[in-house]
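Task 17 of the worksheet. Students: predict the tertiary structure of the chain below and write it out as structure tokens. Keep your answer in the requested format; marks are given for formatting as well as content.
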Amino acid sequence: MNVERLHRILVDIDKELKKEKIVTLLQQVRDHLQNQVNQPNQPSHQTNLVSSLEKLYNALENSAYNDYSPSWKEIISEITGEVELGEELKLKLETILSSNAITPAKALADIKIIFTDLQNFQSSINNVLTGFKTLGIEKEDLDPGECELGYTIPRDYVENKLVELKNEFAELNFILNHISEVVTGEKQEYEVKTISSSDFLLYILIGLQVANVLSKATERILNHYKQILEIKNLRNQLKEKGVPATKTKSIETHANGIMKTEIKSIAKEIIKEHYDGENGRKNELENGLIIALNKLANRIDKGFNVEIRVEPLPEPESDEEVDREYQSKVDLINSIKESSRNIEFIEIGGDSILKLSEKKPS
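Model answer:
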């Protein structure tokens, strides 16, 4: 875990807890529920409880935590243990209250534990942030309008070998450059921001246009992969039961066909939207883009993960005129944020099923 990134995350959580007053609102829910347990025949306690729950649920629904990247949530989970935030906490509270409607005392006991844990967590964050400041540990920030790709390479996949890790860096560069060439007309050099995590989690700065195309393409690949994952699990179950590979070959062919068709569709749409060069070059770029997306899909099937984070631009002053370039960047950032919300880490188990071609047709 990168300490500067941890610092950034803790600053954001601390800001979020204070802004939305989560701990205070949860305390109010606890107190009103306590009153209801003590005086069940007093209707005002039920009214106050409902009101306090509504305020808390609204704060949790609007929490910035809900839009945190998968790796940020994973880091938070590692350092918080049982503490939950955002819509996850809302769901937990709803479950507690609905399952203990007849026994509010049990609901109260559970909510007291949640409140104590969250209160202690907020206190711990403050202590850690104070320590970071004393030690002079910086926090890892993105500049306004800057975009970051997080790319997880499983250690098992590269067998902890330097040469294999180097090869995967080259494959990622291939993927990014083929998208960049279509979108911007040229290949680029990518700056590595950090490498961290128990797996190799690589953070790279990428341009907004490339990020927008990559996030949308990844979102679509993941949506189709969820269908394929069911097929994959079925195939793996058949293998475990001793069904020969020759009998499950048609299942693999079907799964690969689904993804192959979708990737061709994605590539054609990207070319249509972004490429305005010569037709002869168009076919070459489309084929290269298909190979790049095939590589990405194959790796997602093997446990790789993709996430994209972008920093908004500052709001213009009320009397400041918004030019076309600024508005174009804002539109790109909003588009990236929208699609990146739908990019999630998927638990991958069993043998991989995708074997999409990674070679250009001769």
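Marker's comment: The CA atoms of residues 224 and 259 lie 7 Å apart. The chain has twelve helices and four strands.
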